[in-house]
Amino acid sequence: MEILSNLGDGFAVALTWQNILLALLGCFLGTIMGALPGLGPSNGVAILIPLAFTMGLGATPSLILLTSVYYGAMYGGRISSILLNIPGDEPAMMTCLDGHPMALKGQAGEALSLSGVASFVGAFLATWGLILLAPQLVKIALLFGPAEYFALFALAFMTLGGVSSTNQAKSAFAAALGLGLAMIGVDTQTGVPRFTFGEVHLYDGLDFLVAIVGLFALSEVFIFLEERHGEATAESRQLKIGRLTPPLSMLKACTPTMLRTSLLGFLAGVLPGAGASLGSFISYSMEKRLVDKDGTFGTGDPRGVAAPEAGNNAAAGGALVPMLALGVPGSGTTAVLLAVLLSLNITPGPLLFTQNPDVVWGLIAALFIANFMLLAMNIPMVGLFTRLLLVPPRILMPIVAMVSFVGIYGISGSSFDLLVMIGFGIMGWILRKLDVPLVPIILGTLLGNAMENNLRRAITIDNGNWWTLIDSPLSIILWLIAIVGFILPLVIGGKVKAQMHERRDEEGAISD
Amino acid sequence: MSDRIFGVFGILLAIGFAFSALAIEESFLSDAVGPKAFPIIIAAVLSLSSLAILLRPDPEPHWPAFGRLAEVLAAIVVLIIYAEALPEVGFVIATAFAATYLSWRLGSPALGAMLIGVGTSLGIYVIFHLVLGLSLARGPLGF
Prior knowledge:
The complex is a heterodimer. Chain A has helices at residues 2-14, 17-35, 41-54, 59-84, 93-141, 146-160, 168-183, 208-227, 248-270, 275-291, 302-326, 332-343, 350-355, 357-378, 382-388, 393-412, 415-433, 439-461, 473-501; strands at 185-186, 193-194. Chain A is an all-alpha fold. In chain A, strands 1-2 form a two-stranded antiparallel sheet. Chain A: It comes from Tropicimonas isoalkanivorans.
């Protein structure tokens, strides 16, 4: 009952004209960003963060805007998967397998609307999962001391590479690089400057928003320039959309699939290091094994469209659970959302639920509202979004670059930050070429200082005894999970990775 | 080969990082751990992972031909000039030029690129400055 009254308060926060308009805007922009190959949820949110700040939005409205973009992008990715056989973002890659064959059979409209419904079911159930699971996780997290938090951060880094990265050494490198970047600036506990090399601009540390926008948005522009891929992919192929409602029999046949994969996707999202891409992947593989008796998967089976879509949207909701309850994001886009919270001076984690209940429950209520908006937007208006796919990158990419500059300049008003951003853009481009994941870098710059502070606090409390880090059963369990999470992908990861990356979008989409 | 170079670079980075960590001046009021320990741990992780990359490299990534590489470098130079010129000439003019350049290099015909550049610049100015009230760089002409 407490949950329902909290949720009621949340709706009171979320149901103002400003917030509803922001949710609507976020859903619309998010769907576009998801649909356009080359812009995914993480770079979409990254570009918009600085703008949300410079517009002077408060904590709840900014979060509502950006999580609507996040949910919207998860919906939008399927559009180009189905129509063009190119995933709009990485989580949507599994939707190509059956979505595009359906479109070739003249059922594009049905595939789009069915996947819209599946997205809705996945996201809706996951939001309920968030409501039920997050407070339980908070109860556990309240038992955490500094040593346990240090172990938890280590766990997040060690599992983040997980199955979605191609090389564990490279994700460890990325995490260490991010942590190292976080060390730049004046040490908060003793006040001595570190790694500043006498540059006054660096005393405050690097602004992680600058790093995020550079790594995610600007590197994308460089990739497009390198490939000189300026024409829209949609132009050559025109598909008939057909009727925009799925027949009831098709919905009925897909209902068990949607329910099962929502649960599975949600669990995949909650696990650290998995994220939406893995959610859609395991949903599809499980359904294929479970119901594909006639071998119709891969040839335009509606269940093969519903499964990954419900799975990836449920995983998107699930990934919010550890981010809100523990302050440790489980995926790329939630890492970017964590940056939003930190810049708003809100520390996510167990205290968030007691100190800022209006933010948490307002956000959850907004997720419900956004979900209904997205369902309404994505079925009748899907024609509009398909037309937007015709915008070629030679128009889109300059806009992305310029909006990134506007956002960063708006925060600081200094050319120095713009140069740092360009530097991060170059770094992001090279690292992406070398297949080094970018998300651990972001997570490192975000969590580096908190991780160090917890380490130092734990050891100081115990008079300089380093063994205090593995002194409690809770921290031992966390360390064990971390070690297993790091080693397991080395053993079994290869196969899963190879299958997942078979259909990867070549030039777009940072792993989520 | 790329990964081997990358690994060597990573190890050098880790050594540099460790040296500048050791050079941090400790304050006389320090906690039990001090400001050096965590950076040194990071340097250790950085060097170990670089070593692993060096010893077990991935297949060679697809590097662009020299022409495309020059393309990216030119774009970087243009963006640096843009960042420096922004406070001098104002948002609208600088952005129009930068967006025109990017659009042209992505394959728009010259005239089309100019229209896209000017359109992008004015569009951002109207939406973000006039409607949303964001402060953009102001040049000598006031915009």
